[in-house]
């Protein structure tokens, strides 16, 4: 299947600052997660794909269309759910969503009909005559999704779609995204810093770091290749011990609390950690085999230690 | 967790061609303005001078005793001058055109749709422009038609062939200068109140500044800084009003064109500036 989005050596500069540096990436059909720490270039990539920011070098293709040559045709086939709240002042939800559909080229009657349908779909059916300005944070997230969906795009850009939502709302939003991507035939690019959200909804990820692609591929494939992970907590002088672990081929990444995650490469024995600890007068307080998660993939890719 | 409604359907209907979204924005703007009773009232009030002039033309044409009300080409100039208060108020009413969108972060919503910045700006300009022309150009042209109807001949029009082009030209210049300036100011702020105050300040301050500088320096060239006085010069020239003018009409036209040009530049930069937000 042809890729949904393709970037070929794309560089974007804001004055002297380089936001994307010769990025080449392929977004396959389905749901793709766009990950990266703050300032990695995720938002810049989305803005470049929307045609807002012209790249200094390189080529962007969305749904087979060159963004530089046909930005309007591209925007006609995509839906964009921005990270920040955005609405047209003074409108109720159904008028707002219908207005967005009309802006995307739908005739007035169709726009209104679809606005009702989509608002029910995203769970705002009962509140569709309320002014958008009176909505809660979670409802604002839903209406942003509705305005991005109403014209039936082939590709949805979702920028932090669960920001500010309560756990129940977040779960519902993620279910909606899964339904859109798997059952409705709409491709999704999900930019989020919440790795569990991406893991729940996406099959592929592209990890950006410092304006470049740190890693990309199927999540299972990225988690899969050989080796294992152990959780480790210890008492003692950490620096020499961590250096010894690194010297022995283990990768160590800090996680929450004081637990470290140690990646054990294929062919290495996790038990080899104990002699190293003993040699550096380290007390091992916690040692447990773990499963590699997307967080580990992310940590390895962006080198968070 | 159940999904609320699985009834989402793909859309197979027709779509309007790209390049027509400005009209969707313009229509929404007009609807928003007309939904406010005070602006609707203002629009109706702005037609009262028209009714008064119609009565004047009728009396002058049909009653000998009312010959002192006889109309001349200056009636139209006077009428348009009279409308300037309503024009000012209508334009101030458009202060939220872009400011409201900036406050509500709506630009990112607009610009992620298949429409250009030019379309967005055109849509925002259209409503105030249409309303201003609706209380200047339209009634003034109708007055001319009423004059022909009541007098029963085209003599007046034939004697004043410049009148119709003058009405069209002056009304369009007035509407363009006012709406471009207001929409450009609106793009600079997130507050419609601040925008309205700024416009009012610019309008009155530049006139006061011109008068003060003229007194101090003795030069009337300072009128180039005052939109109100520039419009006076252009109006006098268009309607062939005798008397001295503060600046040559070509200079006034150039100054007005420069003001509109600056407004376009501001709009171009501000709408782009919001579009490309630093990450």
Folded structure, characterized:
The complex is a heterodimer of chains A (305) and B (279). By secondary structure, chain A is α/β, with parallel strands linked by helices. Chain A has eleven helices and 14 strands. A six-stranded mixed sheet of chain A has the order 6-7-8-3-9-10, sandwiched between helices. In chain A, strands 2-1-4-5 form a four-stranded antiparallel sheet, with helices on one face. A four-stranded antiparallel sheet of chain A has the order 12-13-11-14, sandwiched between helices. In chain A, strand 12 and strand 13 form a beta hairpin. In chain A, helix 3 crosses helix 4, helix 3 packs parallel to helix 5 and helix 4 crosses helix 5. Chain A is elongated, with a radius of gyration of 22 Å. By secondary structure, chain B is mainly alpha-helical. Helix content of chain B is 71%, strand content 0%. Chain B has 13 helices and no strands. Chain B starts with 20 loop residues before the first helix and ends with a helix. The chains are: A alpha/beta (305), B mainly alpha (279). Chains A and B meet through helix 1, helix 2, helix 3, helix 4 and helix 5 of A and helix 1, helix 5 and helix 6 of B.
What descriptive keywords fit this protein?
heterodimer; A: 305 residues; alpha/beta; 6-stranded mixed β-sheet; 4-stranded antiparallel β-sheet; 11 helices; B: 279 residues; mainly alpha; 13 helices
């Amino acid at each position: 299947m042809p890729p949904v989005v393709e970037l070929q050596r794309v560089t974007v500069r804001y004055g002297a600052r380089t936001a994307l540096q010769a990025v080449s990436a392929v977004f396959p059909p389905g749901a793709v997660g766009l990950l990266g720490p703050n300032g990695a270039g995720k938002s810049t990539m989305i803005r470049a794909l929307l045609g807002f920011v012209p790249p200094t070098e390189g080529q962007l293709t969305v749904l087979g269309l060159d963004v530089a040559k046909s930005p309007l045709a591209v925007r006609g086939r995509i839906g964009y759910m921005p990270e920040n709240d955005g609405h047209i002042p003074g409108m109720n939800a159904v008028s707002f969503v219908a207005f967005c559909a009309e802006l995307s080229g739908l005739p007035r009657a169709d726009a209104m009909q679809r606005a009702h349908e989509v608002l029910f779909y995203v769970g705002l059916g009962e509140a569709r005559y309320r002014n958008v300005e009176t909505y809660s944070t979670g409802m604002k997230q839903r209406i942003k999704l509705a305005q991005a969906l109403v014209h039936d795009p082939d590709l949805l850009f979702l920028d932090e779609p669960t920001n500010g939502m309560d756990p129940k709302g977040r779960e519902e939003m993620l279910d909606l995204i899964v339904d859109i991507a798997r059952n409705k035939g709409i491709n999704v690019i999900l930019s989020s810093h919440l790795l569990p959200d991406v893991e729940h909804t996406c099959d592929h990820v592209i990890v950006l770091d410092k304006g470049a692609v740190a890693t990309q591929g199927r999540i299972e494939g990225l988690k899969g290749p050989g080796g294992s992970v152990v959780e480790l907590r210890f008492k003692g002088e950490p620096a020499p011990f961590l250096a010894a672990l690194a010297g022995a081929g283990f990768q160590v990444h800090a996680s929450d609390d004081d637990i470290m995650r140690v990646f054990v490469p294929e062919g290495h024995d996790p038990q080899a950690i104990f002699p190293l600890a003993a040699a550096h007068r380290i007390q091992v307080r916690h040692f447990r085999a773990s499963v590699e998660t997307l967080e580990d993939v992310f940590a390895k890719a962006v080198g968070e230690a | 967790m159940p999904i609320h409604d699985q009834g989402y359907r793909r859309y197979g209907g027709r779509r309007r061609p790209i390049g027509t979204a400005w009209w969707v924005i313009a229509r929404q703007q007009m609807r928003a303005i007309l939904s406010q009773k005070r602006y609707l009232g203002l629009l109706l009030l702005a037609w009262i001078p028209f009714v008064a002039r119609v009565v004047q033309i009728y009396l002058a044409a049909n009653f000998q005793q009312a010959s002192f009300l006889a109309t001349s080409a200056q009636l139209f100039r006077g009428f348009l001058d009279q409308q300037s208060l309503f024009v000012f108020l209508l334009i101030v009413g458009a202060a939220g055109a872009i400011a409201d969108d900036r406050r509500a972060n709506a630009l990112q919503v607009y610009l992620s749709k298949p429409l250009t910045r030019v379309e967005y700006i055109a849509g925002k300009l259209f409503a105030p422009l249409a309303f201003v022309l609706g209380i200047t150009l339209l009634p003034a042209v109708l007055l001319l038609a009423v004059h022909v109807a009541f007098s029963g001949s085209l003599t007046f029009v034939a004697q004043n062939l410049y009148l119709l082009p003058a009405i069209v030209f002056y009304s369009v210049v007035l509407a363009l200068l006012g709406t471009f300036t207001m929409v450009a100011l609106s793009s600079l702020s997130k507050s419609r109140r601040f925008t309205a105050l700024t416009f009012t300040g610019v309008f009155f301050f530049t006139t006061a500044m011109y008068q003060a500088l003229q007194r101090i320096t003795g030069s009337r060239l300072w009128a180039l800084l005052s939109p109100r006085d520039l419009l006076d010069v252009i109006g006098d020239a268009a309607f062939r009003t005798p008397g001295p003018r503060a600046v040559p009409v070509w200079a006034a036209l150039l100054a007005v064109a420069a003001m509109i040009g600056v407004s376009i530049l501001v709009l171009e930069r501000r709408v782009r500036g919001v579009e490309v937000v630093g990450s």
